[in-house]
Design a protein that fits this description.
It is a single chain. The protein has 14 helices and 7 strands. The chain is of the alpha+beta class. The protein has 2 domains: about 220 residues, Endonuclease III, domain 1 (Orthogonal Bundle), CATH 1.10.340; about 120 residues, Nucleoside Triphosphate Pyrophosphohydrolase. Strands 1, 2, 3, 4, 5, 6 and 7 form a 7-stranded mixed β-sheet that branches. A hairpin with a 4-residue loop joins β5 and β6. α2 runs antiparallel to α8. The radius of gyration is 24 Å and the shape is globular.
Length: about 375
């Protein structure tokens, strides 16, 4: 019985390399989607797009990218932007740390590099919010550097092309995938090749029901040859995402609503929110709201009518948010937890960046 090949030790790449390079570049030139950042050779625009594309689908990014570039057309304008305005333009795209890191990097480029962008993948990897994948994408697409990329789409494509038998979470497998990706990148047109790999994973080599009959590299795909491409990549069993019951208070006084600005360093940092928090064990909703408002803002409230229930999923947990209309009884609101607290007119709420969960019940006000 033939021994199964291990792609952690053997090297199957050289035999497939010419075919994969040629087929993917030809396919990409005739099948690439018309995306706004692909119409530009501006390194700033490509950098912004790659940050937005982290963990986000291209079709979702398009309107945010166009709005962002219209408001912040240069690295200078981004560096000088107010945080509230930056997050408001980003609002709805999620993973807000990306926006804050983008601005941190812009300030470094302006203040420490005299406006000069990094010129190598290694230099880009030193910028806030830029890891090896993003550095490789910016380097190859904007600068023509022969650098690999390895996002979720590329991992899936490689796992199927080479029928990798080990879980992607394995550190040795990740290391080997980077080596394979780097070996495949051609010296000419590295940016087009990397985009082709990502495009292939996004549109053809999809997680479920891959369109193998349309794949330009199907002739050299080991998973297809085995007849089970959907079995790859192999993954460890998913950990169950935790769920939390959360309450929020809508407090109105003289036509204004009480909001707090979340600390910059934490989850949803810099966004404005209706105050509240997690329901602790043994508490009901009313008790949780009274405790949270006392701890967060130093005020006493009276819990009133139930306004809405909102279900929302974040990257690492899910919440069910229960929203109540509340009355301010006593105490002056102060930022015990938040950076700032403020009474805001309903008509001005659109000027403040709010979490996606809060946006879901805003129309009820």
């Amino acid at each position: 019985m033939a021994q199964k090949k291990s792609y952690l030790t053997n090297d199957p790449v050289p035999a497939k390399r010419p075919c994969i390079r040629r087929a993917l570049l030809n396919w990409f030139r005739t099948n690439a989607r018309d995306l706004p950042w692909r119409r530009s050779h501006d390194i700033y625009a490509i950098w912004v797009s790659e940050i937005m594309l982290q963990q986000t689908r291209a079709e979702t990014v398009v309107p945010y990218f166009e709005r962002f570039m219209q408001r912040f057309p240069t690295v200078e304008s981004l560096a000088l932007a107010r945080e509230d305005e930056l997050l408001r333009v980003w609002q709805g795209l999620g993973y807000y740390t990306r926006a804050r890191n983008l601005q941190r990097a812009a300030k470094i480029i302006i203040s420490e590099r005299n406006g000069a962008f990094p010129q190598t993948a290694e230099e880009w990897s030193q910028m806030p919010g830029v890891g090896p994948y993003t550095a490789g994408a910016i380097g190859s697409i904007a600068l023509g550097i022969r650098a690999p990329v390895l996002d979720g789409n590329v991992k899936r494509v490689l796992a199927r092309l080479f029928a990798i038998q080990d879980a992607l979470e394995n550190a040795q497998v990740r290391k080997r995938l980077w080596e394979i990706a780097g070996d495949l990148v051609p010296p000419k047109y590295p940016g087009d090749f990397n985009q082709a790999m990502m495009e292939l994973g996004a549109r053809i080599c999809t997680p479920r029901k891959p369109l193998c009959h349309e794949c330009p590299v199907r002739q050299v795909c080991d998973a297809l040859e085995q007849g089970n491409p959907e079995n790859f990549p192999i993954r460890k069993r998913k950990i169950k995402i935790p769920h939390y019951e959360v309450v929020a208070a809508v407090i109105r006084k003289n036509g204004r609503y009480l909001l707090g600005k979340r600390p910059s360093g934490g989850m949803l940092g810099g966004l404005w929110e209706f105050p509240g928090g997690k329901v602790e064990h043994g508490e009901n909703h009313e008790q949780a709201l009274i405790r949270e408002l006392r701890e967060e803002m130093g005020i006493e409230i009276e819990v009133g009518p139930y306004l809405a229930v909102v279900k929302h999923t974040y990257s690492h947990y899910q919440i069910t948010l229960h929203v109540y209309e509340c009355r301010h009884r006593s105490g002056t609101p102060r930022p015990e937890y938040h950076q700032e607290v403020k009474w805001i007119l309903r008509s001005r709420l659109k000027d403040y960046p709010l979490p996606a969960a809060d946006l879901k019940f805003l129309d009820l006000l």
